[in-house]
Amino acid sequence: METPRLKDKDKMPFGKHKGTTMERVPPGYLLWLGDQKWISGWPQVKGYIEHNRNVLEKEIANPNQYR
Fold first, then answer.
1. Most CB within 10 Å of its CB: which of 24, 33, 34, 48?
2. What phi and psi, each to the nearest 5 degrees, are found at residue 33?
């Protein structure tokens, strides 16, 4: 069974952005998290990052287009 992933309006459950909606967490931070081995311990966060990786990468490449 697949673990449900967080959605844009859900809140980041840990770290320095704890309590911030996922859509407002900096994309660079999320991509960094996605590369950490321990993120598997947070499957909902990992799922959000994997599902949104392309958008997060585009936000970094063109930050003014997405804000």
1. 48
2. -60, -45
Residue 26 buriedness (CB in 10 A; 0-12 / 13-18 / 19+): middle
- CA dist 57 and 11 (Å) reads 20
Residue 11 backbone phi and psi in degrees, to 5? -95, 145
The model carries a pTM of: 0.88
Q: What would the pLDDT profile of 14-59 be if each residue is shown by its tens digit?
A: 999 999 999 999 999 999 999 999 999 999 999 999 999 999 999 9
Cα dihedral 17→43→49→33 (10° resolution) = 50
